[in-house]
Amino acid sequence: MTDRWARAEERFRQREAERRYRRNDQAWEDYDDDTTVIPRYTDEDHEEVLAAERSRRAAPQRAERGEPRRGRPQRAEEAEPRRSRGDGLGGGRSGAASARSGRARSERGGSRTDEERAESRSERRRGAPSRGRRSRAASRKAAERKKRRRNLWLIGALFVALFAGAAVFAGMKVVKMFGAPEDFAGPVGPLVVVQVHPGDTSNQIAEEMHKKGIVASSEAFFQAAVRNSNMNSVQPGYYAIPSHSPSTQAVTALLGKSSRVGNLVVSEGRQLHDQQDVNTGSRKDGIYRKIADASCVGTGTNQKCLTYDQLDAAGAGADLTALGVPSWAEQRVRDVPDRTRQLEGLIAAGTWDFDPSGSPEQILKQLVSASARSYESTGLLQSGAETKLNPYQTLIAASLVEREALPQDMGKVARVIVNRLADNQPLQFDSTVNYALDRTEVATTDTDRAKRTPWNTYAMPGLPATPISAPSLNALRAVENPEPGTWLYFVTVDKQGTTLFTESYSEHLRNIEKARQSGILDSGR
After folding, report:
1. What is Dmax (Cα atoms) for the chain?
2. What is the pTM (predicted TM-score) of this model?
3. Helix, strand or coil for residue 6?
4. 446-476 pLDDT, tens per residue?
5. CA nearest 271: which of 345, 352, 324?
6. How does residue 338 score in pLDDT terms, banded at 50, 70 and 90?
7. Is there a contact between 134 and 39 (Cβ–Cβ < 8 Å)?
8. Distances in whole angstroms, Cα of residue 365 to Cα of each of 143, 226, 315, 333, 409
Protein backbone atom coordinates (compact mmCIF):
# COMPACT_ATOMS: atom_id res chain seq x y z
CA MET A 1 0.00 0.00 0.00
CA THR A 2 2.75 2.29 0.95
CA ASP A 3 4.63 1.55 -2.27
CA ARG A 4 1.62 2.35 -4.38
CA TRP A 5 1.22 5.70 -2.71
CA ALA A 6 4.88 6.43 -3.18
CA ARG A 7 4.71 5.60 -6.87
CA ALA A 8 1.57 7.68 -7.30
CA GLU A 9 3.22 10.59 -5.51
CA GLU A 10 6.27 10.25 -7.74
CA ARG A 11 4.20 10.32 -10.91
CA PHE A 12 2.30 13.37 -9.61
CA ARG A 13 5.47 15.32 -8.89
CA GLN A 14 6.90 14.42 -12.30
CA ARG A 15 3.76 15.61 -14.10
CA GLU A 16 3.78 18.85 -12.11
CA ALA A 17 7.44 19.47 -12.96
CA GLU A 18 6.86 18.84 -16.64
CA ARG A 19 3.81 21.12 -16.67
CA ARG A 20 5.51 23.93 -14.73
CA TYR A 21 8.78 24.11 -16.73
CA ARG A 22 7.47 23.00 -20.09
CA ARG A 23 8.78 25.11 -22.99
CA ASN A 24 7.10 25.62 -26.32
CA ASP A 25 9.68 23.94 -28.59
CA GLN A 26 7.75 24.95 -31.69
CA ALA A 27 8.06 28.62 -30.72
CA TRP A 28 11.80 28.25 -30.19
CA GLU A 29 12.11 26.51 -33.54
CA ASP A 30 10.33 29.40 -35.27
CA TYR A 31 12.58 31.99 -33.56
CA ASP A 32 15.31 33.12 -35.92
CA ASP A 33 18.18 34.56 -33.89
CA ASP A 34 20.37 36.40 -36.39
CA THR A 35 22.35 38.32 -33.81
CA THR A 36 26.07 38.31 -34.20
CA VAL A 37 26.74 39.29 -30.61
CA ILE A 38 29.18 36.90 -29.04
CA PRO A 39 28.14 35.97 -25.46
CA ARG A 40 30.43 37.16 -22.80
CA TYR A 41 32.81 34.52 -21.62
CA THR A 42 33.29 34.04 -17.86
CA ASP A 43 35.09 31.61 -15.63
CA GLU A 44 31.72 30.15 -14.45
CA ASP A 45 30.78 29.32 -18.03
CA HIS A 46 34.11 27.59 -18.48
CA GLU A 47 33.56 25.48 -15.32
CA GLU A 48 30.08 24.56 -16.49
CA VAL A 49 31.40 23.52 -19.90
CA LEU A 50 34.06 21.33 -18.27
CA ALA A 51 31.47 19.70 -15.99
CA ALA A 52 29.21 18.92 -18.97
CA GLU A 53 32.13 17.44 -20.86
CA ARG A 54 33.09 15.21 -17.92
CA SER A 55 29.48 14.07 -17.57
CA ARG A 56 29.29 13.21 -21.28
CA ARG A 57 32.46 11.13 -21.11
CA ALA A 58 31.34 9.26 -17.95
CA ALA A 59 27.90 8.36 -19.35
CA PRO A 60 28.94 5.08 -21.05
CA GLN A 61 30.62 3.83 -17.87
CA ARG A 62 27.54 4.60 -15.75
CA ALA A 63 25.40 2.81 -18.28
CA GLU A 64 27.55 -0.30 -17.99
CA ARG A 65 27.23 -0.20 -14.17
CA GLY A 66 23.50 0.34 -14.45
CA GLU A 67 23.63 3.84 -13.03
CA PRO A 68 21.11 6.37 -14.28
CA ARG A 69 22.35 9.23 -16.42
CA ARG A 70 22.86 12.52 -14.63
CA GLY A 71 21.12 15.59 -15.66
CA ARG A 72 17.96 13.79 -16.96
CA PRO A 73 15.21 12.30 -14.65
CA GLN A 74 14.12 8.75 -15.29
CA ARG A 75 10.70 8.12 -16.69
CA ALA A 76 8.27 6.22 -14.56
CA GLU A 77 8.49 3.20 -16.86
CA GLU A 78 12.26 3.04 -16.38
CA ALA A 79 12.14 3.59 -12.63
CA GLU A 80 9.44 1.02 -11.96
CA PRO A 81 11.47 -2.15 -12.58
CA ARG A 82 14.26 -0.90 -10.41
CA ARG A 83 11.84 -0.26 -7.56
CA SER A 84 10.42 -3.71 -8.04
CA ARG A 85 13.82 -5.22 -7.81
CA GLY A 86 14.40 -3.12 -4.76
CA ASP A 87 11.20 -4.46 -3.21
CA GLY A 88 12.35 -7.98 -3.64
CA LEU A 89 15.84 -7.30 -2.36
CA GLY A 90 15.49 -4.73 0.32
CA GLY A 91 11.81 -4.43 1.26
CA GLY A 92 9.66 -1.35 1.41
CA ARG A 93 12.22 0.74 3.17
CA SER A 94 14.62 0.34 0.30
CA GLY A 95 11.88 1.19 -2.16
CA ALA A 96 10.94 4.30 -0.25
CA ALA A 97 14.57 5.43 -0.15
CA SER A 98 14.84 4.85 -3.85
CA ALA A 99 11.68 6.85 -4.43
CA ARG A 100 12.92 9.69 -2.29
CA SER A 101 16.23 9.65 -4.15
CA GLY A 102 14.42 9.80 -7.49
CA ARG A 103 12.29 12.71 -6.29
CA ALA A 104 15.40 14.55 -5.12
CA ARG A 105 17.10 14.06 -8.46
CA SER A 106 13.93 15.21 -10.25
CA GLU A 107 13.64 18.32 -8.14
CA ARG A 108 17.33 19.11 -8.39
CA GLY A 109 17.89 18.70 -12.14
CA GLY A 110 14.65 18.07 -13.93
CA SER A 111 13.87 21.62 -15.04
CA ARG A 112 17.39 22.41 -16.16
CA THR A 113 17.69 19.16 -18.08
CA ASP A 114 14.53 19.87 -20.06
CA GLU A 115 15.81 23.31 -21.04
CA GLU A 116 19.19 21.97 -22.09
CA ARG A 117 17.54 19.17 -24.06
CA ALA A 118 15.25 21.61 -25.87
CA GLU A 119 18.09 24.00 -26.54
CA SER A 120 20.24 21.14 -27.88
CA ARG A 121 17.48 20.07 -30.26
CA SER A 122 17.02 23.68 -31.45
CA GLU A 123 20.77 24.15 -32.01
CA ARG A 124 20.99 20.90 -33.93
CA ARG A 125 18.14 22.03 -36.15
CA ARG A 126 19.86 25.41 -36.79
CA GLY A 127 23.28 23.80 -37.24
CA ALA A 128 24.67 25.87 -34.34
CA PRO A 129 27.91 24.77 -32.62
CA SER A 130 27.88 23.25 -29.18
CA ARG A 131 28.10 25.48 -26.14
CA GLY A 132 31.68 24.40 -25.43
CA ARG A 133 32.87 25.17 -28.94
CA ARG A 134 31.01 28.49 -28.89
CA SER A 135 32.69 29.43 -25.62
CA ARG A 136 36.15 28.61 -26.94
CA ALA A 137 35.52 30.61 -30.15
CA ALA A 138 34.26 33.50 -28.07
CA SER A 139 37.44 33.35 -26.02
CA ARG A 140 39.61 33.46 -29.13
CA LYS A 141 37.62 36.32 -30.65
CA ALA A 142 37.80 38.26 -27.41
CA ALA A 143 41.60 37.83 -27.40
CA GLU A 144 41.78 38.92 -31.05
CA ARG A 145 39.68 41.99 -30.30
CA LYS A 146 41.97 42.85 -27.42
CA LYS A 147 45.03 42.47 -29.69
CA ARG A 148 43.42 44.60 -32.41
CA ARG A 149 42.59 47.31 -29.90
CA ARG A 150 46.19 47.29 -28.65
CA ASN A 151 47.53 47.51 -32.24
CA LEU A 152 45.15 50.35 -33.01
CA TRP A 153 46.37 52.22 -29.97
CA LEU A 154 49.99 51.74 -31.03
CA ILE A 155 49.30 52.87 -34.61
CA GLY A 156 47.35 55.83 -33.35
CA ALA A 157 50.18 56.83 -31.01
CA LEU A 158 52.66 56.55 -33.90
CA PHE A 159 50.53 58.78 -36.13
CA VAL A 160 50.17 61.30 -33.34
CA ALA A 161 53.96 61.39 -32.86
CA LEU A 162 54.56 61.81 -36.61
CA PHE A 163 51.95 64.53 -36.86
CA ALA A 164 53.44 66.36 -33.90
CA GLY A 165 56.95 66.14 -35.43
CA ALA A 166 55.70 67.40 -38.78
CA ALA A 167 53.89 70.25 -37.08
CA VAL A 168 57.04 71.26 -35.19
CA PHE A 169 59.15 71.09 -38.37
CA ALA A 170 56.61 73.12 -40.33
CA GLY A 171 56.47 75.64 -37.52
CA MET A 172 60.24 76.05 -37.56
CA LYS A 173 60.14 76.52 -41.33
CA VAL A 174 57.44 79.15 -41.03
CA VAL A 175 59.33 80.96 -38.31
CA LYS A 176 62.51 80.83 -40.38
CA MET A 177 60.67 81.98 -43.49
CA PHE A 178 58.82 84.88 -41.97
CA GLY A 179 61.21 85.71 -39.17
CA ALA A 180 64.22 87.94 -39.62
CA PRO A 181 67.26 85.90 -40.82
CA GLU A 182 70.46 85.95 -38.83
CA ASP A 183 72.62 88.97 -39.63
CA PHE A 184 75.78 90.63 -38.33
CA ALA A 185 75.44 93.96 -36.56
CA GLY A 186 79.11 95.01 -36.86
CA PRO A 187 81.80 96.05 -36.51
CA VAL A 188 83.28 94.53 -39.65
CA GLY A 189 86.38 92.34 -39.75
CA PRO A 190 89.32 91.91 -42.13
CA LEU A 191 88.86 91.84 -45.89
CA VAL A 192 88.00 88.50 -47.49
CA VAL A 193 88.35 87.71 -51.20
CA VAL A 194 85.25 86.11 -52.72
CA GLN A 195 84.70 84.97 -56.32
CA VAL A 196 81.66 85.59 -58.48
CA HIS A 197 81.53 82.92 -61.16
CA PRO A 198 80.11 83.48 -64.64
CA GLY A 199 76.36 82.93 -64.56
CA ASP A 200 76.06 83.06 -60.75
CA THR A 201 72.61 84.00 -59.40
CA SER A 202 72.01 86.15 -56.33
CA ASN A 203 71.29 83.02 -54.33
CA GLN A 204 74.60 81.43 -55.36
CA ILE A 205 76.49 84.62 -54.52
CA ALA A 206 74.75 84.66 -51.13
CA GLU A 207 75.87 81.09 -50.44
CA GLU A 208 79.48 82.00 -51.30
CA MET A 209 79.32 85.08 -49.06
CA HIS A 210 78.11 82.99 -46.15
CA LYS A 211 80.69 80.30 -46.80
CA LYS A 212 83.51 82.88 -46.66
CA GLY A 213 82.22 84.35 -43.38
CA ILE A 214 81.29 87.70 -44.90
CA VAL A 215 77.61 87.53 -43.85
CA ALA A 216 75.92 85.69 -41.00
CA SER A 217 73.43 83.89 -43.26
CA SER A 218 72.81 83.52 -46.97
CA GLU A 219 69.14 84.45 -46.41
CA ALA A 220 70.08 87.87 -45.03
CA PHE A 221 72.34 88.65 -48.01
CA PHE A 222 69.77 87.38 -50.49
CA GLN A 223 67.03 89.56 -49.03
CA ALA A 224 69.31 92.60 -49.21
CA ALA A 225 70.44 91.71 -52.75
CA VAL A 226 66.96 91.37 -54.24
CA ARG A 227 66.10 94.83 -52.94
CA ASN A 228 69.00 96.35 -54.90
CA SER A 229 68.44 96.52 -58.66
CA ASN A 230 72.16 97.10 -59.31
CA MET A 231 72.88 93.45 -58.47
CA ASN A 232 72.20 92.67 -62.12
CA SER A 233 75.34 94.58 -63.08
CA VAL A 234 77.75 92.50 -60.96
CA GLN A 235 80.48 91.06 -63.20
CA PRO A 236 82.29 87.74 -62.76
CA GLY A 237 85.58 88.14 -60.91
CA TYR A 238 87.12 88.51 -57.47
CA TYR A 239 85.99 90.99 -54.82
CA ALA A 240 87.50 92.01 -51.47
CA ILE A 241 84.71 92.52 -48.93
CA PRO A 242 84.99 92.96 -45.14
CA SER A 243 84.12 89.90 -43.09
CA HIS A 244 81.28 89.98 -40.51
CA SER A 245 79.48 92.62 -42.56
CA PRO A 246 75.77 93.41 -42.17
CA SER A 247 74.01 92.12 -45.26
CA THR A 248 73.16 95.58 -46.65
CA GLN A 249 76.78 96.71 -46.30
CA ALA A 250 78.01 93.52 -47.97
CA VAL A 251 75.78 94.20 -50.99
CA THR A 252 76.98 97.81 -51.15
CA ALA A 253 80.62 96.72 -50.96
CA LEU A 254 80.12 94.15 -53.72
CA LEU A 255 78.70 96.81 -56.02
CA GLY A 256 81.46 99.31 -55.28
CA LYS A 257 84.20 99.76 -57.88
CA SER A 258 87.00 99.68 -55.32
CA SER A 259 86.12 96.15 -54.18
CA ARG A 260 87.07 94.52 -57.49
CA VAL A 261 90.51 92.85 -57.20
CA GLY A 262 92.61 90.55 -59.33
CA ASN A 263 91.40 92.05 -62.59
CA LEU A 264 94.17 92.11 -65.22
CA VAL A 265 94.14 93.64 -68.70
CA VAL A 266 96.95 92.50 -71.02
CA SER A 267 97.19 94.51 -74.21
CA GLU A 268 98.23 92.94 -77.53
CA GLY A 269 101.97 92.72 -78.00
CA ARG A 270 102.84 93.41 -74.33
CA GLN A 271 105.93 91.71 -72.92
CA LEU A 272 106.60 90.17 -69.51
CA HIS A 273 109.15 92.78 -68.38
CA ASP A 274 109.14 96.56 -68.30
CA GLN A 275 110.64 98.45 -71.26
CA GLN A 276 111.74 102.04 -71.69
CA ASP A 277 110.99 104.02 -74.80
CA VAL A 278 114.08 105.54 -76.46
CA ASN A 279 112.34 108.70 -77.60
CA THR A 280 110.18 109.58 -74.56
CA GLY A 281 112.07 107.81 -71.77
CA SER A 282 108.79 106.64 -70.30
CA ARG A 283 108.40 103.20 -68.87
CA LYS A 284 106.15 100.72 -70.58
CA ASP A 285 104.85 98.40 -67.88
CA GLY A 286 105.30 94.72 -68.52
CA ILE A 287 102.84 91.94 -67.65
CA TYR A 288 104.55 91.23 -64.31
CA ARG A 289 104.04 94.87 -63.32
CA LYS A 290 100.40 94.71 -64.35
CA ILE A 291 99.85 91.58 -62.25
CA ALA A 292 101.50 93.18 -59.22
CA ASP A 293 99.20 96.21 -59.43
CA ALA A 294 96.08 94.04 -59.81
CA SER A 295 97.03 91.89 -56.82
CA CYS A 296 96.59 94.67 -54.23
CA VAL A 297 93.94 94.08 -51.57
CA GLY A 298 92.94 96.83 -49.12
CA THR A 299 93.94 100.45 -48.82
CA GLY A 300 96.46 102.55 -46.96
CA THR A 301 98.71 100.85 -44.48
CA ASN A 302 96.55 97.71 -44.60
CA GLN A 303 97.09 97.23 -48.33
CA LYS A 304 98.77 93.99 -49.40
CA CYS A 305 100.28 93.55 -52.87
CA LEU A 306 102.63 91.21 -54.66
CA THR A 307 105.76 92.82 -56.07
CA TYR A 308 107.24 92.84 -59.55
CA ASP A 309 110.35 91.07 -58.30
CA GLN A 310 108.34 88.32 -56.60
CA LEU A 311 106.53 87.56 -59.83
CA ASP A 312 109.73 87.69 -61.89
CA ALA A 313 111.37 85.19 -59.54
CA ALA A 314 108.34 82.90 -59.53
CA GLY A 315 108.17 82.98 -63.35
CA ALA A 316 111.75 81.67 -63.55
CA GLY A 317 110.96 78.59 -61.45
CA ALA A 318 112.07 75.17 -62.60
CA ASP A 319 108.76 73.42 -61.81
CA LEU A 320 106.90 74.09 -65.06
CA THR A 321 103.85 72.11 -63.97
CA ALA A 322 103.46 74.38 -60.95
CA LEU A 323 103.49 77.33 -63.36
CA GLY A 324 100.78 75.85 -65.61
CA VAL A 325 102.96 75.42 -68.73
CA PRO A 326 100.99 73.27 -71.22
CA SER A 327 102.45 69.98 -72.38
CA TRP A 328 102.77 71.14 -76.01
CA ALA A 329 105.17 73.93 -74.90
CA GLU A 330 106.96 72.25 -72.00
CA GLN A 331 110.04 70.94 -73.83
CA ARG A 332 110.79 74.19 -75.68
CA VAL A 333 110.28 76.19 -72.48
CA ARG A 334 112.67 73.92 -70.65
CA ASP A 335 115.34 74.69 -73.28
CA VAL A 336 114.98 78.51 -73.09
CA PRO A 337 118.44 80.08 -72.50
CA ASP A 338 117.11 82.79 -70.16
CA ARG A 339 114.85 81.40 -67.43
CA THR A 340 113.39 84.81 -66.62
CA ARG A 341 111.87 84.87 -70.12
CA GLN A 342 110.54 81.30 -70.18
CA LEU A 343 106.88 82.34 -69.71
CA GLU A 344 106.99 84.95 -72.48
CA GLY A 345 103.95 84.66 -74.74
CA LEU A 346 102.24 82.07 -72.50
CA ILE A 347 100.07 84.77 -70.91
CA ALA A 348 97.77 85.83 -73.71
CA ALA A 349 96.43 89.28 -74.48
CA GLY A 350 92.97 89.91 -73.06
CA THR A 351 91.15 90.50 -69.77
CA TRP A 352 91.82 88.03 -66.98
CA ASP A 353 90.72 87.49 -63.38
CA PHE A 354 92.90 85.85 -60.75
CA ASP A 355 92.70 85.28 -57.03
CA PRO A 356 95.02 87.89 -55.47
CA SER A 357 95.12 86.03 -52.17
CA GLY A 358 97.17 83.25 -53.80
CA SER A 359 100.94 82.92 -53.99
CA PRO A 360 102.91 84.27 -57.01
CA GLU A 361 103.23 80.73 -58.39
CA GLN A 362 99.50 80.10 -57.99
CA ILE A 363 98.61 83.36 -59.72
CA LEU A 364 100.95 82.67 -62.66
CA LYS A 365 99.61 79.14 -62.99
CA GLN A 366 96.05 80.46 -63.07
CA LEU A 367 96.90 82.96 -65.84
CA VAL A 368 99.06 80.59 -67.93
CA SER A 369 96.48 77.78 -67.75
CA ALA A 370 93.63 80.09 -68.76
CA SER A 371 95.71 81.48 -71.66
CA ALA A 372 96.57 77.96 -72.88
CA ARG A 373 92.88 77.09 -73.02
CA SER A 374 92.24 80.28 -74.95
CA TYR A 375 94.99 79.50 -77.47
CA GLU A 376 93.78 75.96 -77.95
CA SER A 377 90.27 77.20 -78.70
CA THR A 378 91.53 78.57 -82.06
CA GLY A 379 92.56 75.12 -83.26
CA LEU A 380 96.24 75.58 -82.37
CA LEU A 381 96.81 71.89 -81.68
CA GLN A 382 95.39 70.86 -85.05
CA SER A 383 97.21 73.53 -87.13
CA GLY A 384 100.54 73.18 -88.87
CA ALA A 385 99.65 70.88 -91.74
CA GLU A 386 100.27 73.65 -94.27
CA THR A 387 102.75 75.83 -92.34
CA LYS A 388 104.84 72.92 -90.98
CA LEU A 389 104.96 74.61 -87.58
CA ASN A 390 104.28 72.90 -84.25
CA PRO A 391 102.00 74.62 -81.68
CA TYR A 392 104.82 76.41 -79.83
CA GLN A 393 106.41 77.61 -83.11
CA THR A 394 103.00 78.85 -84.23
CA LEU A 395 102.77 80.83 -80.98
CA ILE A 396 106.22 82.37 -81.60
CA ALA A 397 105.27 83.35 -85.16
CA ALA A 398 102.02 84.89 -83.90
CA SER A 399 103.98 87.07 -81.44
CA LEU A 400 106.07 88.38 -84.36
CA VAL A 401 102.94 89.14 -86.36
CA GLU A 402 101.50 90.99 -83.34
CA ARG A 403 104.56 93.24 -83.05
CA GLU A 404 105.05 93.85 -86.78
CA ALA A 405 101.61 94.30 -88.35
CA LEU A 406 98.30 96.08 -88.00
CA PRO A 407 95.23 93.82 -87.88
CA GLN A 408 94.45 94.28 -91.58
CA ASP A 409 97.94 93.11 -92.58
CA MET A 410 98.36 90.15 -90.21
CA GLY A 411 97.54 87.48 -92.79
CA LYS A 412 100.15 88.83 -95.25
CA VAL A 413 102.89 89.15 -92.59
CA ALA A 414 102.15 85.57 -91.50
CA ARG A 415 102.61 84.49 -95.14
CA VAL A 416 105.98 86.26 -95.33
CA ILE A 417 107.15 84.37 -92.22
CA VAL A 418 106.05 81.01 -93.62
CA ASN A 419 107.61 81.71 -97.05
CA ARG A 420 110.95 82.80 -95.59
CA LEU A 421 111.16 79.84 -93.26
CA ALA A 422 110.44 77.54 -96.17
CA ASP A 423 113.29 79.20 -98.18
CA ASN A 424 115.60 79.12 -95.13
CA GLN A 425 115.99 82.90 -95.24
CA PRO A 426 116.56 85.00 -92.09
CA LEU A 427 113.40 86.78 -91.03
CA GLN A 428 115.25 90.07 -90.23
CA PHE A 429 112.51 91.59 -88.06
CA ASP A 430 113.42 94.73 -86.09
CA SER A 431 110.99 93.62 -83.37
CA THR A 432 113.25 90.65 -82.57
CA VAL A 433 116.22 93.02 -82.20
CA ASN A 434 114.34 95.29 -79.80
CA TYR A 435 113.13 92.38 -77.64
CA ALA A 436 116.50 91.89 -75.96
CA LEU A 437 117.08 95.63 -75.47
CA ASP A 438 116.15 97.62 -72.35
CA ARG A 439 115.40 100.72 -74.45
CA THR A 440 113.32 100.14 -77.57
CA GLU A 441 112.08 101.98 -80.64
CA VAL A 442 110.61 101.17 -84.03
CA ALA A 443 113.91 101.76 -85.82
CA THR A 444 117.10 99.85 -84.97
CA THR A 445 120.75 100.65 -85.47
CA ASP A 446 123.36 98.60 -87.28
CA THR A 447 124.99 97.95 -83.91
CA ASP A 448 121.74 96.62 -82.46
CA ARG A 449 121.12 94.39 -85.44
CA ALA A 450 124.63 92.99 -85.22
CA LYS A 451 124.19 91.78 -81.64
CA ARG A 452 123.81 88.04 -81.60
CA THR A 453 121.07 86.94 -79.20
CA PRO A 454 118.70 83.95 -79.11
CA TRP A 455 116.00 86.33 -80.41
CA ASN A 456 117.77 88.51 -83.04
CA THR A 457 116.54 87.25 -86.44
CA TYR A 458 119.11 89.40 -88.22
CA ALA A 459 121.95 87.45 -86.64
CA MET A 460 120.51 83.94 -87.05
CA PRO A 461 118.03 82.04 -89.25
CA GLY A 462 114.72 80.67 -88.11
CA LEU A 463 112.38 81.72 -85.32
CA PRO A 464 113.42 83.33 -82.01
CA ALA A 465 113.93 81.12 -78.93
CA THR A 466 110.60 82.20 -77.40
CA PRO A 467 107.65 84.38 -78.31
CA ILE A 468 108.53 88.08 -78.01
CA SER A 469 105.13 89.31 -76.78
CA ALA A 470 101.59 88.34 -75.85
CA PRO A 471 99.85 87.65 -79.16
CA SER A 472 96.18 88.25 -79.75
CA LEU A 473 93.92 85.49 -81.01
CA ASN A 474 93.68 87.30 -84.36
CA ALA A 475 97.45 87.07 -84.79
CA LEU A 476 97.34 83.40 -83.84
CA ARG A 477 94.63 82.65 -86.37
CA ALA A 478 96.58 84.54 -89.05
CA VAL A 479 99.58 82.22 -88.60
CA GLU A 480 97.37 79.14 -88.48
CA ASN A 481 95.80 80.17 -91.79
CA PRO A 482 98.14 82.63 -93.62
CA GLU A 483 96.83 84.64 -96.51
CA PRO A 484 97.87 83.04 -99.82
CA GLY A 485 100.73 84.82 -101.60
CA THR A 486 104.40 84.77 -102.60
CA TRP A 487 105.60 87.77 -100.59
CA LEU A 488 109.04 87.69 -99.04
CA TYR A 489 109.49 91.32 -97.93
CA PHE A 490 107.43 94.04 -96.26
CA VAL A 491 108.15 97.44 -94.70
CA THR A 492 106.02 100.10 -93.00
CA VAL A 493 106.50 103.35 -94.92
CA ASP A 494 104.77 105.98 -92.71
CA LYS A 495 103.64 106.69 -89.19
CA GLN A 496 100.06 105.86 -90.12
CA GLY A 497 101.08 102.20 -90.46
CA THR A 498 100.97 101.80 -94.23
CA THR A 499 102.81 98.58 -95.09
CA LEU A 500 104.04 97.50 -98.52
CA PHE A 501 104.59 93.83 -99.51
CA THR A 502 106.64 92.43 -102.35
CA GLU A 503 108.51 89.31 -103.50
CA SER A 504 111.19 91.38 -105.27
CA TYR A 505 114.21 92.49 -103.29
CA SER A 506 114.86 95.52 -105.56
CA GLU A 507 111.29 96.69 -105.06
CA HIS A 508 111.73 96.17 -101.35
CA LEU A 509 114.75 98.52 -101.36
CA ARG A 510 112.67 101.21 -103.05
CA ASN A 511 109.99 100.78 -100.36
CA ILE A 512 112.62 101.18 -97.65
CA GLU A 513 113.65 104.49 -99.19
CA LYS A 514 110.06 105.68 -98.93
CA ALA A 515 110.11 104.81 -95.25
CA ARG A 516 113.30 106.80 -94.69
CA GLN A 517 111.81 109.83 -96.40
CA SER A 518 108.80 109.71 -94.07
CA GLY A 519 111.10 109.71 -91.03
CA ILE A 520 109.70 106.53 -89.57
CA LEU A 521 113.11 104.83 -89.64
CA ASP A 522 114.95 107.64 -87.84
CA SER A 523 116.59 106.47 -84.62
CA GLY A 524 116.36 108.37 -81.37
CA ARG A 525 119.69 107.17 -80.13
Report:
1. 184
2. 0.65
3. helix
4. 888 888 999 999 999 999 999 999 999 999 9
5. 345
6. very high
7. yes
8. 80, 36, 9, 15, 33
